Amino acid sequence: MHIFIIRRLLQLIPVIIGVTLVAFLIIQLIPGDAAQVMAGEAASEEQLEQVRENLGLNEPLYVQYGLFLADLAQFDLGESVRTGQPVMELVAPRFWITLELAFWGLVVAVSVGLFLGILAANKQNSFRDFGTMAAAVIGLSMPNFWLGLMLMYVFANQLGWLPTSGWGDWQQIFLPAITMGTAGAAIIARMTRSAMLEVIGEDYVRTARAKGVKERFVIYKHALRNALIPVVTVIGLQFGYFLSGAVLTESVFSINGLGRLVVDAIAQRDFPVVQGTVIVLALTFVFVNFVVDVLYRVLNKRIELN
Amino acid sequence: MTTKDHTPVLKVENLQTSFFTYDGEVKAVDGVDFEVRENETLGIVGESGSGKSITSLSVMQLIQSPGEIIGGKIELNGDDLLQKSKAQFAKYRGNRLSMIFQEPMTSLNPVFTVGHQVAETVKIHKKMGKREAHQEVIRMLKLVGIPAPESRAKSYPHELSGGMRQRVMIAMALACEPELLIADEPTTALDVTIQAQILELIKRLQESTGMAVMIITHDLGVIAETADQVAVMYAGEVVEQADVKTLFNRPLHPYTQGLMNSIPRHDVDVDELEVIRGTVPSPAEMPSGCRFAQRCPYASEICNTHPSLAAPSNNIDGHTDAGAVRCWIYTDEWDAEGNPMKNEEVQQGS
Amino acid sequence: MTTTPLFETKNLKKYFPVKGGILNRTKAEVKAVDDISFAINPGETLSLVGESGCGKSTTGRAVLRLEEPTDGEITFNGEDFRSLSKSELRDKRKDMQIIFQDPYASLNPRQKVKQILDEAMAIQGVVPKKDRPARIRELMDVVGMRPHQAERYPHEFSGGQRQRIGIARALSVDPKLIVCDEAVSALDVSTQAQVLNLLRDLQRKYDLTYLFISHDLGVVRHISDRVAVMYLGKIVEIADKKSLFDSPRHPYTRALLSAIPVPDPDEKSERIVIEGDVPSPMDPPSGCRFHTRCPFATDICKQEDPELRKTGDMADDHQAACHHMEEIVAQYGTTPTLPEEVGNE
Which residue of A122, A202, A211 is the best one to mutate when testing the B interface, meaning the one whose CB has the most B CBs within 10 A? Predict the structure, then answer.
């Protein structure tokens, strides 16, 4: 197990290098002169030179990348070209908001998804099964922002049960979390259903019944533990998508998360901020994947041997 | 050995189990009767598709949709099992009757330790606490010959060999001292030296507990080695039933004879193996008469009518305890029809 | 008899690397086949028999170079088979065919039987295109199927029929040697008998040579001329069929023979039950690999790996690898099984 974790960590190194390289190149790959794009068309030659100097654009590319990495190692993501604030200071508080949002989205996705998936698998080909799976298809195909707007319209505007927007109060959690979690719930429900159906046909489930285990425990103990193994992977991936997919939900509900930050930064051509956000999101994604891999290993005792 | 006057531990009457597929009803088990007594082993032998496994799963009520037990009676020491509710019957499973399966590799849950899985049985049925259950697990693992039971109890199934896993299955099945043990192809997936160990173990445990054993196999060698009574199944029916010596010394049904002559043996040379021509009829083309008729070298006009399982009417070699056979040859009708084939010739398996 | 063997292998080895550790380097080797030698004469059937993990199937694949052997010589028809290049090897494949345990897995489900057979012939270029339909009809007839069945797909057949198709495919290129890898193990006894009889008839008709791999000693006795018993990558005994079954010398062969249940209730329980499991081939015991389970093992067995050898009264081509053969024969004779008390010591 330790060997596995160390090996997996070593494998992260090239991934992280790749991620930082891509993020670094964002500025280099902007069509035209990056400094011009950032400073705006009206900028004077001195102003442009100032921007280039600040961003280190005059150095050779490899030196720039080296400096970039050196800064990164000290958690220095540069400064916003708009406000002059360190990017780290801009990103950090919003990152927590997005993380919180993704977490609640995941809570919705996992609880609803698992519940519906098990429900459907339990009575295969029944009305309940078809109903659940039809709901899953609808949930999956509904555009995120539209769902958000509809929820807002019904529960905030019409019924007035919940606030329309913002973040911080517990009541403000519900609508964005449901908006984010619905598609994930649908994916997890389908995955759980097929994994459960596969596992229910396994010999050891029959053994559990032959032992006199109550049907409830046959399903929730013997079958579910095994069915969860592939589902965990999907859940981990969902969490990653939630982080990067928060943009829409944050816009709809006016939540000041990373998504909003990056959208605004793109609009204002504040590339250091874009770069910083991309790095933070990508590294989080990589980290989540690593955790999922380890978790998968812990759940699935059989892999250890090979 | 066999004691005639005991009430049977298990009594199965006219068991019918069908699968309802898109192509229609498949009668996997069609009117099967048998009994197993205390301290006795019943062997059920047959090839794939004979319904032998479905029979054993039916007794345990482990038939899953689209299969269903559609008729018959199953009694365990006088208790009518098919009348029990699901919850009531769950209390019997693993307690009064248990089962071990063909694939020890896949029959244990990969995510729990073997100790946990054995403990589960005694926790459910004997209402034991954690510590007590653990003691019981160690005792059982020791009983089935698992070395270092304390540490093996902490192992996961994949860490054990096939033979060890089957021992764990046996420990689990016998933890509550069942009245009946059903072993469905318990050694088919194992190597012969391990098979010998496992068969030996089952026999030893039966001697000490007096349980009734039902062993399902395709291997006539295993049957000869372990069974007291034998039922031969073909296409969902029992075609012949007798005590083991009678069956092997004087197989009556042409199918039983064909089966015995088609096994290549390691202790005898045969130049040409006898074959049973053709294959088992598919459920869709099941003949309305004798199900073996198409493949039977003796088939006659009368075989278009379905024969019943009965003691042979014509006395064979003065044997009175000749079991029962589902074949027209051994009936008065056959003789009355004036068939050229004489019983004696059939019995020689010519 | 001084016939030149059709096939011969010397010091054949097949090791599989076991990877592990942080850098996934080769940590150890599984010696699946560890220095074995045997020869097969034309028209003869040699069987490899043993329990799972003994290396019999690996041997079957290694001699055909379906998996490249780690070391050793292979001579086929007088030619050095191991020095053949990839393309030469492809040409030679028509002389050496293999039939697998699961015929279904080795038949393309999207091809009709006639396409399967046609393709096999086309690859080897042995039969001109215009002659192939006739050849397909002939092949179907040879394996006991009706010509019109060639129009069907593999899933429409039963297991026994599929194995017949597998045999027809192997025969389509006129091979000299056929490796049968557990070819009848998945079949029911009545069907198994049909296929075994077929294999024997074909051998007589076409003078085929078989390397027959099986775990079933009954089947092996029926089909073989000579038998090699394998245990953990080694041949522990090799002999003509009669000697092997009637006067086996290696304690493992005897244990194996006595473990098989005999379909005769009157002959019950003249058997020794050997203890324990087959050790892992990754970490085989030192010396004689059977010593951990052998009732006769002494110190020398733990230290020295016994060579295959023949003692005084053994038949000419009978060899066994056991340090204590002489003593065991002196004490217990050469009956196939050993007295029960041996196992219980």
Answer: A211
Q: Nearest chain C Cα to A7, which residue?
A: C22
| Token pair listed for A162 | 């919940």
Nearest-Cα distance to chain A for C256, in Å, is 30
Domain A98-305, CATH = 1.10.3720.10
- DSSP H helices, C188-273, are 189-206, 217-223, 241-246, 251-259
Compute the distance between CA of residue C103 and CA of residue B279 in angstroms, rounded to an integer.
17
Degrees to nearest 5, angle at CA C9 with C7 and C10: 150
Q: C21 to chain A nearest CA, in Å?
A: 6
Show me where the domains of chain A are located.
17-74, 98-305
Q: Does A197 touch chain B (CB under 8 A)?
A: no
Q: Do A222 and B91 touch (CB under 8 A)?
A: no
Would strands B67-76 and B10-21 be described as parallel, antiparallel, or unpaired? antiparallel
Whether residue B224 and residue C269 make contact (CB cut-off 8 A), yes or no, is no
At C273 the three-state DSSP class reads: coil
Q: Residue C80: enclosing H or E segment and its boundaries? A: strand C79-80
Least confident of A63-67, C62-66, C236-240, C306-310: A63-67
In this prediction, residue A31 carries a pLDDT of 66
Q: What is the mean pLDDT of chain A?
A: 82
pLDDT at C236: 96
ipTM confidence? 0.86
> Who among B92, B101, B125 is closest to A207 (CB)?
B101
Q: Measured between CB atoms, does A212 come within 8 Å of chain B?
A: yes
Confidence category of residue C22, pLDDT binned at 50, 70, 90: low
Ordered domains of chain C (ranges, CATH)? 7-224 (3.40.50.300), 248-344 (no CATH)
C185 in Cβ contact with C212 (< 8 Å) = no
CA A183 to chain centre: 13
Q: Cα C142–C146–C148 angle (5° rounding)?
A: 130
Measured in whole angstroms, the distance separating CA B136 from the mean position of its chain's CA atoms is: 29
**How remote is the C-alpha of B119 from its chain's centroid?**
27
Q: What is the pLDDT of residue B203?
A: 94
Which chain A residue's Cα is nearest to C18? Answer: A306
B275 vs C190: CB contact, 8 Å cut-off?
A: yes
Cβ contacts (< 8 Å) between A3 and chain C: which residues? 20-22
- The answer to whether the CB of B20 falls within 8 A of the CB of B68 is yes
Q: Which residues of B touch C273 (CB under 8 A)?
A: 193, 196-197, 200
Cβ(A122)–Cβ(A198) under 8 Å?
A: no
Block means of pLDDT (10 residues each) for chain B, length 350 residues? 66 95 88 94 92 95 91 94 93 94 89 94 92 94 92 92 93 94 93 91 94 95 94 95 92 93 86 83 85 92 91 64 86 74 50
Q: Please report which confidence band the pLDDT of residue C120 belongs to, taking 50, 70 and 90 as the band edges.
A: confident
Residue B282 forms contact with C (CB below 8 Å): no
Rounded to the nearest 5°, which phi and psi values hold at C303? -100, -45
Please check whether residue B123 is in contact with residue B177, taking contact to mean a CB–CB distance below 8 angstroms. no
Question: Which among A125, A145, A96 has a CA at the least distance from the CA of A254?
Answer: A145
Contacts of residue C80, Cβ cutoff 8 Å, sequence gap at least 6 = C73, C74
Q: Give the pLDDT score at B316.
A: 57
Residue where the block lists tokens 């010091």: C11
| Length of chain C as a residue count | 345
The predicted-structure confidence for C163-200, as pLDDT tens digits, reads as follows 889 999 999 888 999 999 998 888 888 888 888 999 99
Dist CA C261 CA C270 (whole Å): 10
The answer to whether the CB atoms of A7 and C22 lie below 8 A apart is yes
Backbone angles phi, psi at C57, to 5 degrees: -70, -40
pLDDT digits (tens, 9 = 90+) for C70-115: 999 999 998 999 999 988 888 888 899 999 887 677 788 889 999 9
Contact C192 B164 (CB under 8 A): no
